Amino acid sequence: MCIARVLRIAAAACALAAASACTPAIPRACAGPAAGAPEVELDAGPWLRVHPGTTLELCLAANCEQLSPSRELTTVQAPPQDHQGAYSLTLKSAGALVIQERVDLADQTVIDPCGTSQAMSIRRLTLGPDGRLVDTPQRQGPHATAGNSP
């Protein structure tokens, strides 16, 4: 499990705990960079709902995944050899091109207590009903409030 996902899980647990001073305890072991290749997370639900019975093939460079009404969300990782730059993202349905774009997924350099490392870039996209790719709005996590009420 990547560090970003562990941090999201820990943050959600803190929000649910309703404690005002909750900070997740994360080990600070320096075992080298934990970043993988950049990824694209695609929500094809809006497009699939207006095209019933169809499937999509999502390819990021040479890595591909299938999407269908029963699997509207998927993540595709860029080839591990190249961690910088733009990648070709292609969506096809029944062999016909739906969309082809270049997406920027350059890794970000992070300086932390262990030195300099690369942070994995995840680009979240949604395929709209009209066949256009848009950045997916940030999802709101659970909120917890603490009060001093008797």
Polypeptide structure, described:
There is one protein chain. The chain has 150 residues and is mainly beta. Helix content is 14%, strand content 37%. The radius of gyration is 19 Å and the shape is elongated.
Please provide a brief summary of the model.
The chain has 150 residues and is mainly β.
Outline: elongated
Alpha carbon gyration radius = 19 Å
Content-based structural category = mainly beta
Low-confidence stretches: 13-25, 143-147
Order of helices and strands: HEHEEEEEEEEE
Q: What is the number of helices?
A: 2
- The overall average pLDDT, rounded, is 74
Helical content stands at 10-25%
Report strand %: 35-45%
Strand line-up of the largest beta sheet: 4-1-9-10
Q: State the total count of DSSP E strands.
A: 10
Termini Cα gap: 41 Å
What's the main sheet like?
A: 4 strands, mixed
List keywords for this structure.
single chain, 150 residues, mainly beta, four-stranded antiparallel beta sheet, 2 helices
In terms of topology, how is this protein built?
Layout: H1 3-17, E1 39-43, H2 45-50, E2 56-60, E3 63-67, E4 73-77, E5 86-93, E6 96-104, E7 108-112, E8 115-119, E9 122-127, E10 133-135
